[in-house]
Amino acid sequence: MSWLQAPKANQAPGKRPRRDPEKSAASKLDYETKRKRNFLPSWTEKFPWLRYTEEAGEEYMMYCSTCRSLPDIADTSSSLFKGTGSFRYDTLSTHALRLHRMEETMLVKMTNIMHAAYYVARTEQPFTHFTTLHGLIKRTGGQLPNCYASNMASFSVAGLVDWRERLVGFGSDGAAVNVGCRTGVATRFKEQVPHLIPIHCIAHRLELGVVSAIKENPKMQQLQATLCSIYEQYHYAPKALRELRMIAEAMEEKVLKPTTLHGARWVPYVHCAAKVLCDSFPVILAHFEDMASLERRPKPSAAVTGRAKKVSSYLKDYGSVLFLHFLCHVLDHLATLSKVFQKDSVTVCEAVESQERCFWNLSSLKTRMGLCMETFVEQSNGSGCYKGVQLNRASSSTLEPQRAAVIDAVISHLDERLKDLHQDSIVAKFRALDPSCWPKYDHTDAVARETFTQHGQEEIKSLSGFYKELLAKAGITPEEVIAEYAQYKSFALRRSAVPMRDIFLSVLQSEERRAMFRCLCHLIEIYMVLPVSTAVCERGFSTMKRVKTDWRSSLTTAQLQRLMFISIQGPALEDFDAASAAQRWWTSSLRRRRPGFNPWSSRERGDEEDELVLMGSEDELEE
């Protein structure tokens, strides 16, 4: 009876003892550690793309011949692309799912699904519209699979690895939390990334410079107050706006609704408000004179009457109207500069060139009148009658002293705000790569040749020293960068009429030129990605406000990020490649996709059989 074992204490007779989970897990781990897996030749029959190396002196491993033959589209990080010695069947089955191609009919159906899903996300619509759109496609004869008819969205998230090694610039507005010298975000970043360049948004600095210039000039302050009063009158009183349009219809004139002066970018808003006042001048003045009249019934409130008298008095002054037309020209150039600063692709040199061009145009307004101002002077013809309105204190003055004072103030404040782009800063030293900033080259003049050769050497040396650690990681020394700079000069000199950004793109997009300027390419890439403007962030805030409405408050942060990314950076609807998206969806799953599977097919078939049985029973009863 040695094979019999007495039951242990606290154990019921006839029951097996319970196993300890921790001991079971440890035993299984120990088994997997000691277990030696072998390659089975039968796997090659089921997976024709599988290859196994048995050459002497090499480690035994298996790999995918299809992936290695197509490295451009294959997943190079896959273990079966590199070769693995872990012989597991589930690894092969998972890889086979990714190689399996979708049928053409199903690909067409899934492409239509992707088009509908991308349309919903790109146009910033709620997910509930997808169900309606799905039904509309089916009613119009479009091919769709039997599933995925509910609300769905599937987008990938792009991550950034090793951001400290890739970070070279930081763009922000002027808030202390961002640019504070002690605990600001830029200061915190520079502690970890010494070569970081923090840049205050140039579009924001433009607005601040114009605001500072307005505070110094009483006439500009008066005009600003008048534009604000006109906007408030029609924004908060729909009755006043209706009366304005009735007066315009009676006078057979066109009128535009006065716009606000305040917005994400202030200069274009002020420019638009001034243009509306110039174009609708007689209609707006007639309405304000009517509101200030003592005979008006019902009589407006004292605040409205006082505002109407002040605005009508300003608009009937000849010098004020002339100054309004002059300021329209000033704001026209500043608004153009502001729009350049708001572009996503704006670079340092492009910003400096646009700034200098704007300053030249503004300086020319000191001595000559713009088109709008000349038109006003010709129509008033010295009598002070403009568009049927008799202006007070008409004169032949063209406001030359006031014009010069305004332009000098604007240029002075903008030059002070933007001086780091073209004066003694690391950002300004990148101008050594711009051929338009080089001295004139004359091969017959020895002095001119020497000046051209030495130009930019110190700037390139400073840039190489500033990015010394970054260049060292790529195996580049400052001496190599300076040596390449002379070769770059001979290359860019023949393209001096081409914009600097286009020259850089021609270098970066050519493998031959990248090899020619291997060292300078690092500085060129840094220059191309410096964030000189944060207008795209403002547009991101607007996009977030449109996407996450009160009716979509349950969106998660990750989903909101994906929808914003599609709305801001996604291609246009006509450029979206839905077939590639469907193929990526098909191959990105660990489990096999089943778009043609209908989980309710068996139930529907069972209901039909029951109906047939019941119909047969009724026929038998009738017989």
How would you describe this structure to a colleague?
The chain has helices at 21-34, 43-46, 65-69, 79-82, 89-99, 104-122, 128-139, 163-166, 176-179, 185-192, 202-216, 218-235, 238-251, 266-279, 281-292, 302-315, 318-341, 348-364, 371-380, 400-417, 426-429, 446-454, 457-466, 468-473, 478-493, 500-508, 511-516, 520-529, 535-547, 557-569, 578-587, 601-622, and strands spanning 50-53, 61-64, 169-172, 197-200, 385-386, 389-390. With 623 residues, it is mainly α. Strands 1-2 form a two-stranded antiparallel ribbon. A two-stranded parallel sheet has the order 3-4. A hairpin with a 2-residue loop joins strand 5 (385-386) and strand 6. Helix 17 (318-341) packs antiparallel against helix 19. The radius of gyration is 37 Å and the shape is extended.
Q: How would you concisely characterize the structure shown here?
A:
It is built from 32 helices and six strands. With 623 residues, it is mainly alpha-helical.
Give the helix/strand layout.
Blueprint: H1 21-34, H2 43-46, E1 50-53, E2 61-64, H3 65-69, H4 79-82, H5 89-99, H6 104-122, H7 128-139, H8 163-166, E3 169-172, H9 176-179, H10 185-192, E4 197-200, H11 202-216, H12 218-235, H13 238-251, H14 266-279, H15 281-292, H16 302-315, H17 318-341, H18 348-364, H19 371-380, E5 385-386, E6 389-390, H20 400-417, H21 426-429, H22 446-454, H23 457-466, H24 468-473, H25 478-493, H26 500-508, H27 511-516, H28 520-529, H29 535-547, H30 557-569, H31 578-587, H32 601-622
Parallel strand pairs: 3-4
Antiparallel strand pairs: 1-2, 5-6
Helix pairs in contact: 6-7, 6-31, 11-17, 11-20, 12-16, 13-15, 14-17, 15-16, 17-18, 17-19, 23-25, 26-28, 29-30
